[in-house]
Structure formats: structure tokens, C-alpha cells
Specification:
275 residues, mainly alpha, 2 domains, two-stranded antiparallel sheet, 2 strands, globular
Amino acid sequence: MGRLLQRAKSAPNAHASQAQQSFDALITTLEAVDSRDRVQPNVDLQDAALATLALAERIAAPAFAERIAKQVRAGEVAEDLVERARSYAWASIHIRRKLVLATETRTEAKVAPMLVAEADELLRRMRKLTEYHFDDDPEFGPVLAELRLGSGHLDRANDLEEYADIYREKRAALRADTRHFRATDEADARRVAAEIYQALGVAPRDGDRDWTGLQGAAWPSLLRLFNELRRVGVYLSGGDESGFATLVTAARAARRVAAERAEEEPTPDGEEKPA
């Protein structure tokens, strides 16, 4: 079972009904989003949704109720901000789960052996370089740890994109390693990932649902709502942004928490945790 499929079947399942209900309430709105306004996320949608739920809970704390009410009366905050953020977050969890399940449980199309070999060589080289420099990094270390668990073509493609993102964000530090850094690896990783997606035909549908399209429709709204929650949180903290990370950073933290919880959960007798 691929890493993405394992994650899709994990934590959100406990709240599948709530996720389904939120998705059902928003499906008409999501399907009406123009294709030109749909944007695929640059972070795992499930992680981003969990981070949004966590921030919504912080903002909805009783200690802030009176101050938020004043902002609502002044027209500075939408009265339904927290509820809309929760709704889009749960709907996003449903969409991401369906997208992963629809993709990984289908019969994988043949991916050319030469493409697989190129992907594996890129992954080997990029993994070695990033782990050497950032294995103990509090932000990137947990991401790298999860990337070791990948298996299957879809995981290959996703991992290549994840490593490419790290190369982009940490390019200055990585390029200083003149022995192992290759300037073309980031672009090559994205190209190979795109070719794998194309070979797999990743536009999975379940009945009449285009889950990739729905993910692109949900992401801009989820990002906008998170940023609005973050703005409110910074205001409530007297302008201190230190406790309110960007969505990409918060999503990575949510992934780390989910991974730690998964490690703590007992497995059924006779089963082993994935290595």
C-alpha cells in the first residue's frame, strides 16, 4: 500500500461523516468555480485542511469571543468566518481522501522502465543531499522522514515534487554543496513527476466526480480563509506573527503531528507498522 493511500485511510476516517456533509454542502459551489480560477495546491490538501481546523479552533476560543464580536460589529471580520473555514477544511479532507483513493486503488498504467529509473535516480540523489543538510531541521526533518516511506508510482511523483519544493526553498544552502548539488535536479524532478502523472492518467474520477478538478477548486478558498483566520489571530495577539505560521508551514507541522500520532497508535495483532 502506498504512503498516500495509508494517510488517506488514517485520521480523517474518524470524521468521514462530517467531511462528507461539508463536501455535500459545498459541492455546487465548488463545481461552479471556473477552470481558470482553479489552482492545484503546493502542499498536501489534507495537511492544509488539518492546519486550518486547528487555527479555527484557536480563533474560536471563548477567551477571544468578545473581541471578535467587536470586530464583527465593526465589519472587520465576517461573522461566519470560522464556520466557513471549518466547512472548507472538512470538504477538503474529503476531496483529498477521495482523490488519493481513486488514484491509488485503480490499476496503475504502465510507466516506462526508463522513466522509473530516472525517477529513482533523482530521488536517490535528492534524498541523500536533503537528508544530509536538513535531517535535523525542525521544519523539513519530518517531511524528509515521511518521504522515505513512499512506494508505487504515485508516491514517486509526489515525492519528486516535494523534493523539488525543498530544493526551491533551500536552494542557497544546497547549491553550496558543490560535490552533490546538481542545478538541473529541481526542474528534472518536476518534469519526471509530470510524465509519471501523465502515464498514470491522474485525473481520477469516481462516477461523475473529477477529484483533481475539485481539489483545484477548493484550494484557493481554503487558502484565503486560512489567511483571514491568521490575520485575525495576529490582531488578537497584538500584532505578533510568531505564533501564526503561513499555511504551507502550518500544513507541514500538521503532517508531523499526524505522523507522531500514527507512531503512537497500536497496530492490530499480527500487523506491522510500515517501515
